[in-house]
Design brief:
The chain has 317 residues and is mainly alpha-helical. The chain has one domain. 80% of the residues lie in helices and 0% in strands. It has 14 helices and no strands. The N terminus and C terminus are likely disordered.
């Protein structure tokens, strides 16, 4: 029997396909939920509630499966660093940014993560360097970012809307960089623990940090809870974090990070569509041009490096 038709190979392929679908659909739809949650609650509080609920759910799953949550002491700090970068720095900043810019716009800036990952890998010792096509894609991505910024730059320097948009863009760039660093570190740490356990430790560490931020900022006292806000946080906790991040963590352990980064092709499209239909958001002509440039740039960077990378499936077969 050919190796790719063996039950074990089929199982591995199926898991990876399902994980990709979970990342694509869950993260593409969370931008709208983040926007709704941020309308009702402060960003640190949204981040704290999301991560704490998600941690409780994932720990419950581990207990139900009879999986021990213990991990070697030497990797506790590694799991914590990755979790804080992805679910504290990245997530809280993203929520904050969506109080200043549209959810679809935010998704386009975050789509630059694969390019940032590629640049970080290029700069690191023994990293995968970008070839000519990869550098061209990076430059196109920069052009796409400029196209997104252009409407704000055209406005009056005293315009509150322009200031808000520029601030949102800057916050999103930092958020994207934090997630890119977390992705690279997660791949290099080679966590040899159960996916749910790794995710529980990562989100748990982020939950503690987010809770401290929310408490220090007095967001619990000033919080105004609504049904829409609560539903958005629940959706983010279950779909965006438990489903999305668990699938992403699984893929990082089994597939090359540049392959995993293909979610950037789908997520912005889903986010922009949801923003247009459900939130009545609209992109300007310049921003639409920026979206096309960014998606094309990300495709170039990922494909420029894909040929030299094992998918991880073949290695397990």
């Amino acid at each position: 029997m050919p190796s790719f038709l063996s039950p074990r190979a089929l199982s591995n392929q199926s898991r990876i396909v399902i994980a990709f679908l979970c990342v694509y659909l869950s993260w593409g739809s969370t931008y709208g939920a983040i926007h709704i949650a941020a309308l009702h609650l402060a960003p640190p509080l949204v981040g704290a509630m999301r991560t704490l609920i998600s941690t409780a759910i994932i720990c419950g799953i581990c207990v139900a499966r009879g999986t021990s949550l213990r991990v070697p002491r030497r990797i506790v700090w590694q799991l914590a660093v990755v979790g804080i970068l992805m679910m504290s720095v990245n997530n809280v900043l993203l929520i904050w940014a969506e109080t200043k810019v549209a959810s679809g716009y935010a998704s386009l800036v975050i789509a630059m993560i694969p390019i940032l990952v590629a640049l970080i890998e290029t700069a690191l010792p023994n990293g995968e360097t970008l070839n000519f096509r990869g550098w061209v894609g990076t430059l196109l991505g920069a052009a796409g970012m400029f196209a997104l910024l252009w409407p704000s730059l055209q406005r009056s320097s005293n315009s509150a809307a322009a200031h808000s948009s520029l601030a949102g863009f800057a916050i999103l760039v930092v958020a994207a960089l934090a997630f890119a660093v977390g992705s690279v570190l997660s791949r290099r740490f080679h966590f040899q623990v159960d996916t749910f356990v790794a995710t529980a430790w990562q989100i748990g560490a982020a939950g503690i940090v987010n809770l401290v931020l929310a408490t220090a900022g007095g967001t619990f006292r000033s919080a105004h809870f609504t049904l829409a806000g609560a539903a958005a946080i629940l959706y983010l906790s279950v779909i965006g974090t438990v489903v999305g991040l668990t699938a992403y963590t699984y893929l990082l352990q089994h597939v090359a990070v540049t392959k995993v980064s293909t979610y950037a092709f789908v997520n912005p499209v889903i986010a922009v569509l949801i923003g247009a239909v459900a939130l009545q958001e609209r992109l300007s002509l310049s921003e639409i041009g920026g979206m096309v440039l960014i998606l094309f740039a990300v495709a170039m960077v990922i494909l420029s490096r894909a040929g030299a990378i094992s998918t991880g499936v073949a290695a397990e077969q």
